[in-house]
Known about the structure:
Elements: H1 2-15, H2 18-34, H3 46-76, H4 82-97, H5 99-106, E1 107-110, E2 114-120, E3 123-124, E4 139-140, E5 143-146, E6 152-158, E7 162-172, E8 178-189, H6 192-197, H7 202-218, H8 223-228, H9 230-245, E9 250-261, H10 264-305, H11 308-324, H12 336-345
Antiparallel strand pairs: 1-5, 2-3, 2-4, 2-6, 7-8, 8-9
Helix pairs in contact: 4-5, 7-9
Amino acid sequence: QRASRQLKEAADVIAASPIALQLRYLQTLTQISAEKNSTIVFPVPVELLNLYDMATTESLNEKSYSLNNRNERATMSDGFDLCAWILIIFSYILVIITFPITTFYCIKVVQEYERAVIFRLGRILQGRIKEHVIFSGGAKGPGLFFILPCLDNIVKVDLRTTTFNVPPQEILTRDSVTVSVDAVVYSRVTDPTASVTKVHNVHSATQLLAQTTLRNILGTKTLQEILSDREAIAQNMQIQLDEGTGPWGVKVERVEITDVRLPQSMQRSMAAEAEATREARAKVIAAEGEQRASRQLKEAADVIAASPIALQLRYLQTLTQISAEKNSTIVFPIPIELLNFVKQNR
């Protein structure tokens, strides 16, 4: 193994310089001629070896080029057998003979938002001629294109963005809560040929895939995450749907979570919890207000207690306010001196 590694390193060094290879070639001839044996050597010029290498390389390149051309021709060919070509030629002759009449059957029109996929004898046309020629195959449109009656079958594909509603899905969340979720998916066809040949009904397949994707994604989320992270869930669903429908020639442009419905029992419990939370918050606010009012009242009492005359003035202000009101309240004011006498007796 060590000898093989060293031999490889020596070969890499010699390969970097063509002169080194020629010197090594001459050294080998010298060693062979110095030995006393009956070996007969016919030395081959190094230039001939180089020429052989070049010829071998060119031969391999030619074989590769020929194989590529053969594959390209096989790809571009429609793969029709002899009977098919006979039918095609006969159809062209029939079209030429009955030219005025066959115009109504051979010329088709595709709208700006449509493409037509052409099948000839069950095989899809690959468009061997340039795209601007009216007789080319493949997905055609918009405008006019030519078909052969009785041999060609066309399938029109709408390229406009389509929307569909994902039916409400009963899903069990990660925290064991059953919810009903529905969504709206916006998609459009980007490859008409793939949408026809890769899947039977592209719209139905996309809708079914959207249902399973929605269930799989929401099954890994909690109820709180579903209610608060709708945009993130919709974006994740759009990415997964786009990956799944890509081979079908469909582009999922947008996904929206429209509604999340809870069971009636869960709605009642959540409503009761919200009501209890609001009542607790109201009590806390009332208690905080009472605390602030009590603190301010205590500060006012401390200020009034510092001056006995201030309490008497406050007493007179209260009597004035009561008497100013238009009601049937009868007030029997107590003399302030009596209040002072009672206070002194205490």
